């Protein structure tokens, strides 16, 4: 019995020792777990590959799901756009919910309109507009929404109120009694042709008055650009003249919000003011603050010539090619070398080389300060100048 117990104890001890030794040398520890003795290498590799495949499939599923969600979201937004156009809700990003009254909204009963008196025309047609189609109404609502965002400035034709909860939609703005700058200047120019010796400044336009117009407009455009807006239709016909004969920027039908000064708005064509546009806008429909600067240079030409037609002798079909070759309008009569240099800087081929509106306002201010008794104060007009050819009012 003693011998048997001894052998059993020895056997148990040996087995225990053997097991302990086997366990300490055969365990394989990896980042994927612990593999026990007897697991072949091919099985380990198969497990690792399987785990990798599962991870890749999971990531792929997540990516595809996100793309699908984005596609569905875009589809919903597009449908909302179409619905907005059909229902006349306005801008696809900024519009009031139906029945929602804002601080701009006034009741129709408080608005009195003289439909027999047409004030003018803008980018979307007459100021008095009836029976507009869905797209025209969409554009008009977008203009109203944009004017709400622009805010108040003394050199802008400011929005006062609107009626958008029922038809017809109304945009109520400041009234400038002297109309647009183009016709204002042409009427004064006609009088000056007929009375060349007249010095009454209530009937004529002087060099000082021209520079005042330019500075006021530059001031308004400086504000617009600082708020991230581009106008895209800077021209004398869209500048209004108030009761004090001061200028205000109007007609925001083509205006857009860029957000950042150096951004570019890519238009999709449409009705655009060709003769006031820079090469990059004519060629690629690319608009920016720099394109507004170019247009301002053309507006300076209009101011100096009291409403003369830009590029009067250039066929429209040749405009882009000639501008790309570096051709520019010649210095008009009654335009100083310094003012013409300001124009030419606005017409730099590279948008980045054009001055900003703050610089333009300061340069024009310096020119105004330099006017003295020795400066030619009164304009001497030449009614045979080529830039008056297309102007029937002269």
TrEMBL record:
CDD domains: PTKc. The keyword Transmembrane helix applies. GO terms for cellular component: plasma membrane; receptor complex. PROSITE patterns: PROTEIN_KINASE_DOM, PROTEIN_KINASE_TYR. The chain crosses the membrane at residues 41-65. Pfam families: PK_Tyr_Ser-Thr. Residues 113-368 form the Protein kinase domain. One of its GO terms (molecular function) is ATP binding. One of its GO terms (biological process) is cell surface receptor protein tyrosine kinase signaling pathway. Keywords: Membrane, Transmembrane, Transmembrane helix. InterPro entries: Kinase-like_dom_sf, Prot_kinase_dom, RTK, Ser-Thr/Tyr_kinase_cat_dom, Tyr_kinase_AS, Tyr_kinase_cat_dom. PANTHER family: RECEPTOR PROTEIN-TYROSINE KINASE (PTHR24416:SF583), TYROSINE-PROTEIN KINASE RECEPTOR (PTHR24416). This is Protein kinase domain-containing protein. The lineage of its organism: Eukaryota, Metazoa, Ecdysozoa, Nematoda, Chromadorea.
């Amino acid at each position: 019995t003693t011998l048997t117990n001894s052998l059993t104890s020895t056997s148990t001890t040996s087995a225990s020792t053997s097991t302990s030794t086997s366990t300490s040398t055969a365990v394989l520890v990896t980042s994927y777990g612990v593999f026990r003795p007897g697991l072949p290498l091919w099985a380990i590799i198969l497990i690792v590959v399987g785990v990798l495949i599962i991870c890749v499939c999971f990531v792929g599923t997540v990516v595809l799901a996100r793309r699908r969600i984005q596609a569905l979201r875009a589809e919903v937004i597009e449908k909302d756009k179409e619905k907005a156009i059909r229902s006349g809700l306005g801008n696809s990003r900024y519009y009031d919910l139906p029945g929602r009254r804002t601080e701009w909204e006034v009741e129709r009963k408080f608005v009195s309109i003289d439909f027999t008196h047409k004030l003018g025309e803008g980018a979307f047609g007459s100021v008095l507009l009836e029976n507009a189609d869905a797209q025209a109404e969409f554009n008009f609502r977008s203009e109203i929404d944009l004017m709400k965002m622009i805010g108040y400035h003394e050199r802008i034709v400011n929005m006062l109120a609107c009626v958008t909860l029922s038809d017809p939609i109304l945009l109520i703005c400041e009234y400038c009694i002297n109309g647009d700058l183009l016709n204002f200047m042409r009427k004064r120019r006609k009088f000056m042709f007929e009375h060349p010796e007249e010095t009454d400044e209530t009937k004529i336009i002087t060099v000082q008055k021209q520079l005042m117009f330019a500075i006021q407009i530059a001031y308004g455009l400086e504000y617009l650009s600082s708020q991230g807006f581009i106008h895209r239709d800077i021209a004398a016909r869209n500048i209004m003249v108030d009761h004090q004969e001061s200028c205000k920027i109007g007609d925001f039908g083509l205006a857009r919000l860029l957000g950042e000064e150096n951004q570019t708005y890519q238009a999709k064509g449409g009705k655009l003011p060709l003769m006031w546009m820079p090469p990059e806008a004519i060629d690629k429909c690319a608009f920016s603050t720099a394109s507004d600067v170019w247009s301002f240079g053309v507006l300076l030409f209009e101011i100096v010539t009291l409403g003369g037609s830009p590029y009067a002798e250039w066929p429209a079909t040749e405009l882009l090619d000639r501008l790309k070759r570096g051709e520019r309008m010649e210095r008009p009569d009654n335009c100083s070398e310094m003012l013409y240099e300001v124009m030419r800087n606005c017409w730099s081929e590279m948008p980045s080389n054009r001055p900003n509106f703050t610089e333009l306002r300061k340069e024009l201010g310096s020119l105004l300060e330099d006017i003295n008794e020795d400066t030619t104060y009164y304009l001497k007009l030449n009614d045979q100048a080529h830039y008056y050819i297309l102007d029937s009012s002269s």
